Amino acid sequence: MTVYRISRRRLFVTAGAGVVSLAVVNTVSACSSSSSPPSRPVATTAAQPVSTALPDGWHRVDRSYVSAYLLLRGEEVAIVDTGTPGSAAAIEDGLKAAGSGFAAVRHVILTHYHDDHIGGLEGIEPQVKATIYAGSGDAANIITDKPVKPLNGGDEVFGLRIVDTPGHTAGHISIFEPATGTLVAGDALRTQNGLESSDPQFTTDQTLASASVKALAKLDVKAILPGHGEPLTTGANEALQELAASL
Length: 247
Ligand SMILES: [Zn+2]
Hints:
By secondary structure, this protein is of the alpha/beta class.
């Protein structure tokens, strides 16, 4: 029941967020032999974010235009980013839908200090026994009752490797799971219009942001879970290589 409700919400939100290409591509793939080609030009990236099946253990909490991600492994859970302020209930719903709950949360990792990624923390923090982490360059900008543990590139949390991806903010980090090739990219990558780097409008240092994309392209990425836009679970590596080469 809960799963269904979240799926429905995701559909509405997807439409509301203007991810038109998703609907177009889905329509075409659903009746590929009989439909005419899409009337709008196809984006030049190697892959479109059409699949919502996430790698093993990963779950998405779609908060309108921003996503939080949950990693369930055994009896423990890591949350990566917490959405906009007021997102705690939706994240709890997501945990329950995945068969877990706040009691299992041991790690809350924040990719950067912007409000649409740390907003839910205020409601989550009192309900979990978890360590809160952020990149060492951003941790001081996150004010909570508990200390925020600073992370640096190469650190490991819960089998997740921390990758320094400065640019969007000075201390922006991405999270890479080597076992599955899953990259939770925060705002270092986005997928609303094919795969793109950090939105220049909100980026502290675009040169650094481009260098971060090139660094991410050196990883063996199989799935990209971005802060904004749909997860990219097919053709992710090819799209990332193409993007990195274009910067
Ligand atoms: Zn953001």
